[in-house]
């Protein structure tokens, strides 16, 4: 019998436009659980940002966060694998942001294993909104950027701003060979663009390959919508792009399924597994 693992991206794929799992999707995951069909997630979100979206849903297997930088075990609540950046490796990032009117959000693991986000002054209302959200998250300490120290392991850096500012930041940061940068329009707030960067040796594809081997699966079926899913689509045995996905990703896919706002993934799962 072939052991198959379904792997879901979150934003633009399993989540709807409200950054939530719809009732229909939650019911579908329950049906998969009851039928012993294994599944997990691989997202660009941090652990804390993802948990508030999937709260109450059952994801018992290893999770991939930060575009593959970390693999997290829900049973032990610890990371089993990570490719972090050190303070020296993000000097180019700090120098680039020093020339711009926005602050980076620097996510890090402290020497004692606790989680922090370091940030400077927040110039825009949208940045202040996200800053307040970080402050409200349990298990995530918000600290001033000037207190960033060499003892932390930096998982990723992200930011929000207008398109031109984000483009300038990305162009400068991409000169650093140890970094990989993703950027795009904010699907939840019109007029804003986002960027996210992490260590170049990390990717969703590499992390999902690690899951496949360590958990003993023969086959991976993945679902995604954006450029940070390219590596996962390349390694998967089957890959399905949502109707809202980038055209480049659709071209790589085994097939194109429904829109994320219309429970496209859940409807496909019910048909595939006769749920």
Question: Could you characterize the architecture of this molecule?
Answer:
One of its GO terms (molecular function) is phosphatase activity. This protein has about 280 residues and is of the alpha/beta class. The protein has two domains: about 5-80 and about 200-270, HAD superfamily/HAD-like (Rossmann fold); about 90-200, Hypothetical Protein, Haloacid Dehalogenase-like Hydrolase, Chain: A, domain 2. The chain contains ten helices and 14 strands. It has helices at about 10-15, 25-35, 45-55, 90-100, 125-135, 165-175, 205-215, 230-235, 245-250, 265-270, and strands at about 5-10, 40, 65, 70-75, 80, 105-110, 115-120, 140-145, 155-160, 180-185, 195-200, 220-225, 240, 255. The strands form three sheets. A six-stranded mixed β-sheet has the order 8-7-6-9-11-10, sandwiched between helices. It is globular. The two termini are about 20 Å apart. The mean pLDDT is about 90.
Shape: globular
Strand order of the largest sheet: 8-7-6-9-11-10
Under CATH, the homologous superfamily of the largest domain reads HAD superfamily/HAD-like
pLDDT below 50 for ≥5 consecutive residues: which ranges? none
Gyration radius (Cα, Å) is: 18 Å
Average pLDDT, rounded to a whole number, is 90
- H/E element sequence: EHHEHEEEHEEHEEHEEHEHEHEH
The CATH architecture of the largest domain can be given as 3-Layer(aba) Sandwich
In DSSP terms (H or I, runs of 4 or more residues), the helix count works out at 10
CATH fold node name of the largest domain: Rossmann fold
Measured as a percent range, the helix fraction is 25-40%
The biggest beta sheet is recorded as: 6 strands, mixed
Q: Determine the strand fraction and express it as a percent band.
A: 25-35%
| Number of E-state strands | 14
Whole-Å distance between the termini? 19 Å
Provide the number of structural domains.
2
GO molecular function: magnesium ion binding; phosphatase activity
Pfam families: Hydrolase_3 (PF08282)
Protein name: Haloacid dehalogenase
